[in-house]
Fold this protein.
Amino acid sequence: MDKDRVGPALGRVTSGLYIATAMLDDEPVGMLCSFVEQAGFHPPMITMALSPDRRVAQAATTSESKQIGLNILSTENHGLIGPFANPHNEDPFDGVELVANDYQLPQLEAALAFLVCQFRQEMPAGDHHVYLFEIIDGTLMSDEQEPMVRVRRNGFSY
């Protein structure tokens, strides 16, 4: 494969930007992610591709609830990206306002929307795994903002 030729084309596969959150060992964990897609209507399902060593992926598959939160970012949420983009940030929630919910999942007050996702299945897919989640709850927190869209320059890197 000619990565120099394929990379720019693959990078034009658009996605949104999201912050996936969970509780792992009674601590909040979160990460920026973009490989998310709706996968069904009845029941509502999404797929999310994550590196299996990420703490959110571990929470999805090993915690008692097997639930994660998906905070959907808007074009006004650029300030939330930095703390959650760094996988070595010990406390990405520092200074971030949270909203309480019935699931005890970290829900970002400034996000456009929030979905509660129940883990259903995992499939290896190269350097990531694809996780299937059923949406069991959610809320649109601002109907006046637009979702953030991501277009990468090269489909072989973030």
In short: The first strand starts at residue 15 and ends at 16. The chain has a mean pLDDT of 95. The chain has three helices and eleven strands.
